Amino acid sequence: MRDTRHQTTEHRQRETHRRGRWSVVCVLLSVVVRPALAQPTPTVTAPVTIHASVDRKEITIGDPIRYTVEVSAAADTEILIPVLSGTVGDFSISDFGESPPRKDNGRVVASRWYTLTTFEAGDHLIPAPKVMYRLPGEDLQKAQGDEVLVGVASLLAKDPKATDIRDIKPPEEVPFDWRPYGMAAAAVLVVGLLGVAFFYLLNRPRRQRVLPPRPPHEIALTALNRLRSQGLIEQGQFEQYYVQLSSIVRHYLEDRFRIRAPEMTTEEFLSKLATDGQLIAPHRRLLAEFLSQADLVKFARHLPSLNDSEAAYGAARRFVEDTRPRAAGADTAEVQHAAA
C-alpha cells in the first residue's frame, strides 16, 4: 500500500516539474516571438501618391486659404496634373502657381498651390485632386488623392454686436441731369441765331448808292454837245435840228425854273416868264428870239441858213450857261453879260 502511495507521489512530482519546464519555454518563446510579431509587414510603395492640404482648416467668410496639391512619383513615371481654374468645390480660385519639383528618397515631388476664398458659411469639402500618370510601357492611369475639409465661420456669429448691423440701404435714385439738354438747347439756339444772321446778311436789301441828281444845266449842255455831234446842219436836216434844240431848252427851263415849258406854246411860255420874274429882261429877249426862230422852222417851213443855225445853237448854249446857278457874287457879272 505504501509503495503504491509512494509511486503516486513521485509521479505527481515528475508531472509538476514537466509543466514548470513548459511554462518557462512558453515564457521564453513569448519574449522572443512577440517583438517579431509586433513589427509591421513591409508594404509596396504606390507608383504615384497624392497629398492635398490647406494652410488653415478653420477660416471666416472671405478669408483666403492656400490649398496645396503634392504629387510624388517615381523618377521614370510621367505625371499629368490638371490645372484648376475658376472654382473648385465651393471655393473660388483667385490665384494659383507651381512650385519647382524636388527629389525625395529617389522620387520626384511636384506641387501646385491655389489661393481659395468662399463667402458661404459651414463645412466645405475640397474635392480630391485627380492626377493621370503613365508608367514606362503602360497606358495612362488615374490616381486620386484625398478630400480636405475646411470649416468656414460667419463673422456675425463671432461678433457679439452683430445684431446692430443694419442691412444695406436701397439704391438711391440718380437725379436727372438737365445739363446736357441745356447745353444742347443753347447750342441749337446759337446755331439758329447764326443762321438767321447769315441769312439776313445774304438777303438784306442792298443800300443803293443814291447819286445826287445832275444839275439841269449839265444835262442841257450834255444834250447840246450830243446834238452838235450828230451833224444835222451839215446834212440839211434843219427841222429836226431845231426840234431837238428847242426841246433841250424847254426841258432845261422846266428843270431849272419849275416851269412846264414843254406843254405851253411859245406865247404862253413867254408870258409866264414875264410875270413870274425868274428871268431878267435880257434873258427873256434872248429866249424869245431863239424860240420864235425855232417855231418858224418847225411850223412855217422856214429854211434857215447855216449862220442862222449856228447862231441859234450859240444862243441856246449861252442861255443855259448864263442862267445856271452861280455864287451870290457872280450875279452882277451875269446880268451884265446877258445885257451885252
Give the topology, please:
Layout: H1 2-38, E1 48-54, E2 58-60, E3 65-74, E4 78-80, E5 87-88, E6 91-104, E7 107-117, E8 122-126, E9 130-134, E10 140-144, E11 148-153, H2 155-158, H3 179-203, H4 216-230, H5 238-257, H6 266-276, H7 281-299, H8 306-323, H9 331-339
Parallel strand pairs: 2-11
Antiparallel strand pairs: 1-3, 3-7, 4-9, 5-6, 6-7, 8-11, 9-10
Report on this structure.
The chain is 46% helix and 21% strand. It has 340 residues and is an alpha+beta fold. Among the domains are: 48-158, Immunoglobulin-like (Sandwich), CATH 2.60.40; 216-339, no CATH class. It has a five-stranded antiparallel β-sheet, with no helix packed on it. Helix 5 packs parallel to helix 8. The N and C termini lie far apart (230 Å). The model is unreliable at 1-6 and 328-340 (pLDDT under 50).
Alpha-carbon distance between the two ends: 230 Å
Largest sheet: 5 strands, antiparallel
Q: Percent of residues in helical segments? A: 40-55%
- SS class: alpha+beta
Q: How many helical stretches?
A: 9
User: Which strand order spans the largest sheet, edge to edge or round the barrel?
Assistant: 1-3-7-6-5
| Tally of DSSP β-strands | 11
Mean pLDDT: 76
The portion of residues forming beta strands comes to 15-25%
